[in-house]
Write a structure and sequence with these properties.
Elements lengths: L8 H23 L9 H4 L5 H6 L7 H34 L4 H26 L12 H6 L1 H9 L3 H8 L10 H19 L3 H22 L6 H12 L2 H15 L3 H8 L1 H17 L8 H18 L10 H8 L1 H22 L8 H36 L15
Helix pairs in contact: 1-4, 1-16, 1-17, 4-9, 4-12, 4-15, 5-9, 5-18, 7-8, 8-9, 8-11, 10-12, 12-15, 14-15, 17-18
């Protein structure tokens, strides 16, 4: 079967992981007691828009980018996962007139589980006993809720643990999004295999999820139940509608819906999809914050479709260095928090960080954290993950290759 290449998507995956990295550097600075650009938008942005809060000097101009970049990176991951997994499933269904669900689950398990459980073991049984990985403000909540977190993380429900206990497990809290991915992978291939009208099913699923979230959101202020608060947080984190939108993009590309694709491929559409990201951050009314992820998802889907399917795209990310960083991005995402924590403690011990970290110290902190994360994730990819990737590839169906690893998270 002819192989297909989605050139450039690995690079985009790296940029998404990097966005998460930036937020977490500032967040860890906050937890460890240093001056930070991180803000909680719900607490600090009180004007009608973020831009008005900046102009009134309520917040500094860079803080909104820091606050939203992690969410942007994760939403991009969700849209990309929905796109790639749906495309693979559609291609398999076309080739075999069915989908081998068991093999799909095996492929996902071989790619996701080994590194997830390595991080799980480190986060629960190793790092809490090493001072250089201590995260003040999280450690005490971790100890208080150890067994509940342990059980939920062990069964790929870290997003539910986050919703219940509200505080992330130190050094591995970012794995909540892997739980969302796994829950999506559990259900999505069944939907694609059984559906006789893929487009209708995708739209129905996305619409149902959005309606359910809207109902919970509207009822939350009037129903004072702890369980409803947990459900609201759980649904807010489980952005399955973003993955469904990615699936919609895969449907359009796979079925060559030229009328729509021509509009998406226009240079003005490409430019707009990029420009809309800062516009949405700074100028969307704060009252609409709960739907921001959907608006971002549309911009991201336009970018993904152009990079994946538009031969004349002005959005090109085929640099070999970026593509390599994209291939190790799963490890980059999973290891980056512990690398940041380690770097902050080490620099503070041997260099001495000011409470309001200076520019040279910032350069050291960001530079060393980044290079350390790249080094650790490279070692993880080549020494640990690749062995399981080879096992995954034994069950690869169909022969879709997108720069070696783009079925990965």
């Amino acid at each position: 079967m002819k192989k297909e290449h989605f050139k450039g998507l690995d690079s985009l995956r790296f940029f998404a992981a990097l966005a998460v990295f930036f937020t977490h550097v500032e967040l860890i600075k906050k937890f460890t007691g240093f001056g930070t650009h991180w803000i909680d938008p719900e607490e600090r942005i009180t004007k009608f828009t973020v831009f008005q809060s900046v102009m009134s000097k309520e917040i500094d101009p860079i803080s909104p980018l820091i606050a939203y970049s992690s969410a942007l990176g994760v939403v991009f991951f969700f849209v990309l996962s929905g796109f790639l997994i749906t495309y693979l499933l559609l291609k398999e269904k076309e080739s075999n007139n069915s989908i081998a669900i068991g093999k799909f689950y095996l492929r996902r398990a071989f790619r996701i589980w080994p590194l997830y459980y390595l991080i799980f073991i480190l986060g629960f049984f190793v790092l809490p006993y090493l001072d250089v990985f201590a995260v003040p403000g999280q450690d005490i909540f971790f100890q208080q809720n150890f067994w509940g977190n342990l059980l939920l993380y062990a069964f790929f429900m870290p997003n539910l643990a986050f919703a219940i206990y509200t505080t992330a497990v130190p050094n591995i809290g970012q794995s909540w999004s892997i739980g969302v991915e796994e829950q999506f992978y559990l259900l999505w291939p069944l939907l694609i295999r059984k559906s006789k009208n893929i487009l209708k099913s995708i739209l129905w699923i996305a619409g149902t999820i959005i309606a359910l979230k809207g109902l919970i959101l509207l009822s939350a202020p009037f129903v004072k139940l702890d369980a409803l608060v947990v459900l609201k947080k759980f649904l807010a984190m489980s952005k399955l509608e973003c993955m469904a939108l990615g699936g919609l993009g895969a449907y359009l590309l796979f079925n060559k819906k030229e009328q729509l694709l021509r509009i998406i491929y226009k240079p003005v559409s490409q430019i707009t999809s990029v420009v809309m990201i800062p516009i949405l951050i700074y100028f969307i009314p704060n009252a609409l914050e709960d739907i921001l992820h959907l608006l971002f998802s549309i911009s991201f889907l336009f970018i993904i479709l152009n990079v994946a399917g538009n031969q004349n795209s002005i959005l090109r990310f085929e640099n070999p260095v970026l593509q390599y960083l994209g291939r190790i991005s799963y490890g980059f995402y999973m290891f980056h928090v512990m690398c940041i924590v380690f770097t902050i403690h080490t620099l503070d011990k041997y260099v001495g960080l000011n409470n309001d970290i200076t520019t040279p110290q910032h350069l050291l902190l960001y530079g060393i954290s980044f290079l350390l994360t790249v080094a650790v994730s490279s070692l993880s990819y080549h020494i640990f993950e690749k062995a399981f990737i080879r096992l995954k590839d034994k069950y690869a169906q169909p022969k879709l290759t997108t720069e070696n690893a783009q079925e990965d998270v």
